[in-house]
Design a protein that fits this description.
Elements (H helix, E strand, L loop, with lengths): L2 H9 L18 H18 L4 H9 L2 H17 L8 H12 L4 H15 L8 H8 L7 H21 L9 E7 L10 E7 L9 H6 L12 H14 L2 E6 L2 E6 H5 L5 E3 L20 E5 L4 E5 L1 H6 L3 E2 L11 H5 L19 H4 L7 H22 L1 H22 L14
Antiparallel strand pairs: 1-2, 3-4, 3-5, 6-7, 6-8
Helix pairs in contact: 4-5, 5-6, 8-15, 15-16
């Protein structure tokens, strides 16, 4: 029996109704404190003979009112009306300390500290944090929209101009019969090559390199490439002009003798031309640059075309051609890059605008628009420009160190 009910029974007075806080989870432990308060005040009032006028005086002095305000504040705190995240443990501690008679300033400071350190909600869901975020200035996403439109336009151009490579997750092979360049009977044979593939539904890696993809051998001196070219040049020092059926080409003497009794060995490269009687049908073997690794073989034009190489009919030996220049040719530079002076540093920036295919364009540009617009609205176009450029260039620098011979654009290419 509460104290108000006891007053109503003994004196017939209308007592102040109790505040029901049982629905507040954090206040359930306080019900025991409330009950003890009633028992103590009722016992003291009955011992000293307190009557209705005494309780009226207590009510006018604010005793009941303060108690009711404390319960209402607890209920409002549980509902989150005070602008902080709901934390029943902090409210319970605040009321318990008030019952122990601590100063209000100390109660408030400890309560706020408990709220900040023990909130059950993440920071981004707190009303106070949301209000501060909403108060931040907003910007228009000029940069993200512009860079996305540019990338879409360049992607369409590369798809139209470069065509589509084989859509596959692994290289496929193609076979073709190639006639013997020396016109030897029964010496034609099948040649097999690996087709370039791109599972992002886009052009080949070789074409993307020609339009500005990141490719380390075009950007700095490649030691392995320089060593390989030196070895090739050393081997070609032993080459002689071989004539078979009036057709000539440079090769090693042992290889020439293996072609049969109709072959004859002439002098060096200066004698391997159509002006010599034994080369009446012309020189049919010339350097052919094949692959992204700037490889070179001396073969026929038909064989070079089959392997998608670059044929040099005006040259005799591979050391006379610059195969890396053909690989690194761009609309800005044509055939000027050599292994010794590769310095196309601008590929760090041009690769940012390239996509490896339709699939990568949809995935990358979709995420870029979704997240980039939100970020740029908060921090502005200048900061987004700096973040975009630094992260793009930094990523290419790191990949150039660990994987230098793989062409790269916005998504890593697995084509060859």
């Amino acid at each position: 029996m509460t104290h108000e009910t006891k007053l109503h029974r003994d004196y017939g007075a209308t007592a102040e109704p109790e505040v029901d806080i049982s629905s507040v989870p954090a206040a359930r432990p306080l019900q025991r404190t409330q009950s003890r308060y009633h028992r103590v005040t009722g016992t003291i009032g009955g011992f000293f003979g307190a009557g209705p006028e005494d309780h009226s005086r207590w009510e006018s002095s604010g005793v009941y009112k303060k108690r009711e305000q404390g319960y209402h504040k607890l209920a409002n705190y549980e509902d989150g009306d005070d602008g902080h995240a709901t934390d029943g443990g902090a409210a319970e501690t605040q009321i318990d300390r008030r019952t122990r008679g601590q100063p209000p300033q100390q109660q408030r400071g400890r309560s706020e500290q408990r709220q900040r350190g023990g909130s059950r909600l993440p920071a981004w869901r707190r009303p106070s944090v949301k209000r501060r975020i909403d108060a931040l200035p907003t910007f228009r996403p000029y940069f993200i929209v512009f860079i996305t439109l540019v990338q879409v336009g360049i992607t369409i151009y590369t798809l139209v101009a470069g065509g589509l490579a084989t859509i596959a997750f692994a290289p496929k092979t193609e076979e073709q019969i190639i006639t013997d360049p020396m016109n030897r009977p029964g010496r034609s044979g099948n040649q097999i090559k690996e087709l370039p593939f791109n599972f992002f539904i886009g052009p080949s890696a070789k074409y993307l390199v020609t339009v500005g993809a990141k490719f380390t051998p075009c950007m700095r001196q490649d030691t392995s490439l320089a060593i390989r070219k030196a070895l090739e040049s050393d081997v070609e020092n032993r080459y002689l002009c071989c004539s078979v059926n009036g057709r000539c080409g440079m090769m090693e003497q042992s290889v020439c003798w293996d072609m049969g009794a109709q072959c004859s060995v002439k002098g060096g490269p200066t004698q391997c031309n159509a002006s010599y009687p034994d080369c009446g049908n012309g020189v049919v073997l010339h350097p052919c640059c094949v692959g992204l690794d700037a490889g070179c073989v001396i073969t026929s034009e038909e064989n070079c075309t089959f392997y998608d190489g670059i044929y040099h009919p005006d040259k005799i030996l591979c050391r006379d051609v610059n195969c890396l220049g053909g690989v690194c040719d761009t609309p800005l530079e044509k055939g000027v890059v050599t292994p010794a002076d590769a310095n196309q540093w601008y590929r760090f920036f041009t690769a940012i605008f390239l996509q490896s295919g339709i699939v990568s364009a949809i995935l990358f540009l979709g995420v870029q628009l979704y997240l980039g617009i939100k970020i740029e609205k908060q921090i502005g176009w200048l900061r987004v420009l700096l973040i975009y450029t630094i992260s793009g260039v930094g990523g290419y620098v790191v990949s150039g160190i660990f994987d230098p011979n793989t062409p790269q654009v916005q998504l890593l290419l697995f084509t060859a």
